[in-house]
Design goal:
alpha/beta, Rossmann fold, 36% helix, 287 residues, 8 strands, 2 domains, 8-stranded mixed β-sheet, single chain
Amino acid sequence: MTTVQTHTIDAPGAVVTYDVHPAEGGAPALLLFGSPMDASGFAALAEQFPDRTVVRYDPRGTGRSPRSTSGEVTPEQHADDVQRVIAALGGGPVDVFASSGGAINALALVARHPERVRTLVAHEPPAAALLPDRDAALAAIRDIRDTYERDGFGPAMAKFISISMVKGPVPADQAERPGPGAADFGLPTEDDGTREDPLLAQNIITCTHYEPDFDALAQAPTRIVVAVGAESEGELAYRGGLAVAEGLGTEAVVVPGNHGAYLPAEYGMGGDAAGFAVALRKILDEG
């Protein structure tokens, strides 16, 4: 691919960094992003689209996008950051593949700036607030945040991994369960005292508690496709994707792999970026 170009944009409370893989051709630019994962997680997937200009970015508070504020970052803030990137690219409309918390933020983007996006592929949005078991799910997520504030990264991340692996409804008493130990997942057992983790401090509450504006999404010119992984069936993010699709009056498209199917191999999640790109390209080409 052509040499990657890196740029920054000033935003209220943050400096947002993004990478452009330029290519010749008439197709709209393709934005790839997640949350809280930074642009590096989409490097392998970007390489599968040499015929299109591909853009990756670091959400505020992650990677190379420092912020000057503290506390939670809302999907609306992330959405406004993405639209600033799109504006810098020429205004769009662009195509978007957004995964996990990025899919939540992309739904906020389309609701707030519908003219910026032609096609959105929203991959496994963890929309816990839309689930039938929302009370148990949201309580368990708040317990993860409380654990982080009290005990630090390792114990909280162990609880996060545990709830991510639940197949089916979240148990009503999940928030009261002690959860696995940090050592069970190879996580640090000592509290280093920091409380600025991009997931646990900045996004876990606002992301999972977000409820899409389905009225605004219905009025948008954007084609929205919800995608869920064939290996993720029953997991919270998979079920969140089904709930978002239902709210849109559509059916979710099943794509290969699990929640991290597109990740580079070094992430250790069994990702197959090349195989995943075939499915993603097919969805985009159908638009």
